[in-house]
Structures are given as C-alpha cells and as structure tokens.
Amino acid sequence: MKRSAAVFLIVMLAGVASAGHPGRARAASQPNIVLILTDDQRANTLWAMPNVRRTLLGHGVEFTHAYVVNSLCCPSRTSILTGNYSHTTGVYTNRYPTGGFERFTEQGEDASTIATWLHDAGYETALVGKYLNQYRQWTQGAYIPPGWDRWDALDTDGGGSYYNYAMTLNGRIKDYGHQASDYSTTVLTSYAVHFIEHARTPFFLYFAPSAPHGPAKPPPGDEEKFPRLPPYRPASFNEPDMSDKPAWAAGLPALTDTQIAAIDGFRRRQYQALLGVDRSVARIVGTLWNLHELHDTMIVFMSDNGVQWGEHRLEGKAKPYEESVHVPLVIRYNPFGTSARTEDHLALNIDLAPTFAQLAGVQAPPTEGTSLLPLLENQSASWRSDFLIEHLGDGLVPSNCEVHSDRYVLIRYEYSDGTKEDEMYDLQTDPLELQNVAGDPAHGSEKAILSSRMHALCNPPPPGTNLP
After folding, report:
1. Quick one: which of 13, 181, 330, 392 has the most CB atoms within 10 Å?
2. Strand 386-391 to strand 315-316: parallel, antiparallel, or no bridges (unpaired)?
C-alpha cells in the first residue's frame, strides 16, 4: 500500500478532527449534512458492505430498531423530506392521485422541506439521485423543487435505473446508455463528489442511488460476487402454515420452485448492487476527509424501505411485516464521539428532517417526527414507545394502520366491503411473526392498549377507509 493511502485509512478510521479547508469557513453551529438513502435495502444487509461498516458503523451509531412509517418509495421519501406521516403529506402511494410527485406538489408540501429549511438558513443544497416517482413524467425535467441549489435527478420512471436511463441536471436532460461507465451508482457518485468538492459550506447533500432496487443489477465486475451465498431460509420463509394470518394472506399459495429460485437470484443481485453503494460511501467519506470536512459533517445512511425475501410467501415491499418496514440506519457525527455503538430506541424516517433542522439550528415548522440528537448525545433520553405505520390498499394488501411498539405490533385491515380484521404479534417471543395472537385472550390487555393508541395515531385514516 502506498504511504498516502495508508495514512488516509489510519486518519479516517481514527475519526481524527481536522481544521477546516482553506476558503471553506462556516458558522461553528452549522455542520455539513450528508444523507445517503438507498432504495429497497433490508436492515440485515450491512454485513456485506465493508466500507459502510468501517467508515460509518465503526465510528458512529447504529440504530438497530429503525423503521419507515409507510413501506413504499414515494411515501417514505416525502416523509423523510418533511418529517411527517402520509396522512399529513397526502402521499400514500407512488402514483397520482393518491401519491407520486404530482400529489406532493399539488398539496404544496414541496414548498416546506428540509431542503428549503436548510437553504434558507444558508446551506448550499444538492439532490443527487432518485427524487419522487413520476417526477419526470409530470415535469419533463423543467421543474426544480424549492430549496435545491443543485438538482441531479435520476429518472426512474422510464424503465431504466442502472443502465439506459436519463438524468435531469439542473433542468438539462442527459441520457445514459449501457456501457460500463454508464452504471448509475457510479455516475451518481461522481456528481455527489463533484458537489462536495465545489460547494460552499455548510452544505446538505441528499444522495439517493437506485440500488439495490429491482432488477438489482450488479456493478461491472461484480457479477460473480457472493458465489457461496447460502439460501435464506428462516422459519417464516414460504411459511408452511398460514391459517393464522388475515384473509388476504391466509389464501396465498405456497411459493413454487421457480419463484424461490427467482427470489434467491434477486437476493444475491441485491447484495451485488450494494457493493457499488459501498464504494460510493468510501468515495464520499474519503472526499470529506481530503477536504478536512469529515469532522464537521453528519453522515446518515438509511434505506427508504425493506423488502420481503419469501417470508410469509411474500415478495417485494409495501407489506406490514418486519422485513418491509425495518431498515438500516447509521449516523456518524464525530463531535458526538467516534467509537462504534448501538442504539435500540425506536427511530423513524420521519425523524431525519427534525434531526437535521436541530443540528443546523434551523427554525423549522413542527413535525410528527422527533430529532434524534437527544439519543445521539444521551442514550438515557426520554423517548417514544410506539409509532404508526400506514398503508393504502394496493390490490393485495388491504388498507391498514399498524401500531408498532417496543414489543408488539397490532395491524388493523379494512377490506373493500368495509369489514375489518386484526393481526398482532409479540416480537419479543415471536420475532419472525409466525403466530398471530390478535384473538388470544392472554394478550387482551396489550391489544386494548395498542388499539387505543391506533385511534389516536391513525388520524386521519387512509383515504376511503373508516379505520381504525
């Protein structure tokens, strides 16, 4: 190893503080903020990302109980931008009229986001990567949402997200092809690094690659990685007895051999696609270090939702189960310490916007999320004990509201004919959610508490329903 590379690794991994880069002065109370937001990444996948483990987990806080409040791309991303639930943003799905870019702008929500708050407080801001579903369809790239100084948006509605895609570069459309150099994670990383290198401080970077979203194509050269990845077969995989599940799930057929092979292949490709993101993290952290900005930057790594890998005979996201709603969340901010630790309080995607606002000293509108700074500074801080997950019916999973506590989950569904059905699990004794205890008298008191909380939290309910 060359001496310069060795020195870089030693200093970076030690989390050494450094003086500001010449010409990049800032107010001491306004650190840089970098959000790295992956797409459809499960919480249990960080083991396969060595750079994330070394540079972020190794010197930051891993929130082991991090969740999204709506397990779908567009609703989750609008919650991240605003700090609010779907019933406040008005975005329940990926497409208009119940979601998507047009619904978000129609509601006027994009006029008040973490981008506008930070921009108005003097931050230089950039979005690099995925924004909201249907953005290009509705705007043809001519619209840049308020608050963004740099707008390098990836078009994910045109059928391509790894190759053969388009980008909107501050209003200019640029097409990319199918060459190795066009691989989207690599392209996006170059835009992100360029922004960091040329931005005035303080800056806010929202970096949102498409990986490992389906079809989860690996970066060039990584097509044969994880050759001995063992099959994923928890007891909930292709669950043999679904009779305790609600009606919509109880009737699901067992997965076929063909479906199982497809799930196994997709899982491997997701891990391969994450290798590209892992290298992106290394480049971003390395750039911050080279500019002497690492000590003055909060770096947050999170996913917009998880996915099912065959648990309960299900694939994909937008499900009420842990695999869909539980996500990775790691925060590195050197002033709070550079030793690795874990935090088991309930952390949500709606917490990011108020966290960034408080860190920057911004007077932001009230949000339904809560700043994570108290937990980062003091693990014994008073904190929430439950939260809400919302879902608008999508043809398979009926509309539902879910109250998720430290131990229990209660899900209430409403079918198209108005009938309702409950599903409940004790995650302490049944983390794989194999035994629905909604009708068990032994859990009656816990169910009553959760039901009362549901009436308070699920308000207003998903459109067209009488939940809870």
Report:
1. 330
2. unpaired
Question: Cα(141)–Cα(148) distance, rounded to whole angstroms?
Answer: 14
Catalogue the active-site residues. 73
Element (H, E) at 168: strand 166-169
Give the DSSP H or E segment for 248.
helix 247-250
Centre a 10 Å sphere on the Cβ of residue 119 and count the other Cβ atoms it contains. 18
Rounded to whole angstroms, how far apart are CA atoms 411 and 451? 9
Pair of tokens at residue 173: 């459309």
The whole-angstrom separation of Cα 155 and Cα 162 is 10
Percent of the chain with pLDDT over 70: 94
pLDDT of 329 above 50:
yes
Instruction: Give the pLDDT mean for 392-412.
Output: 97
The residue that leads in pLDDT, 9 or 32, is 32
Using the 8-state DSSP alphabet, how is residue 119 labeled?
H
Please state the rounded mean pLDDT for residues 424-429. Answer: 98
**Angular region, 292: left φ>0, alpha ψ -120 to 50, beta rest:** left
Residue by residue, DSSP assigns 408-457 as EEEEEEE-TTS-EEEEEEETTT-TT--S--TT-GGGHHHHHHHHHHHHHH
Residue with tokens 């310490």: 337
d(CA 258, CA 344): 38
Q: What percent of the residues of the chain are helix, what percent strand, and what percent coil, each to the nearest 5?
A: 35, 20, 45
> Does residue 17 surpass a pLDDT of 70?
no
Q: Is the CB of residue 390 less than 8 Å from the CB of residue 462?
A: yes
For the record, the structure tokens of 456 come out as 């308070």
Distance CA 368, CA 349 (A): 11
What is the pLDDT at residue 298? 98
CB 101 within 8 A of CB 334: no
**CA–CA distance, 209 with 128 (Å, rounded to integer):** 8
Instruction: List all residues 6 or more positions away from 127 whose beta carbon is below 8 Å from its beta carbon.
Output: 115, 148, 150, 151, 152, 153, 206, 208
Alpha helices in 296-410 (DSSP H): 322-325, 352-360, 373-377
CA distance 112 to 146: 8
3-state SS track over 217-259: CCCCCCCCCCCCCCCCCCCCECCCCCCCCCHHHHCCCCCCHHH
Cβ(357)–Cβ(339) under 8 Å?
A: no
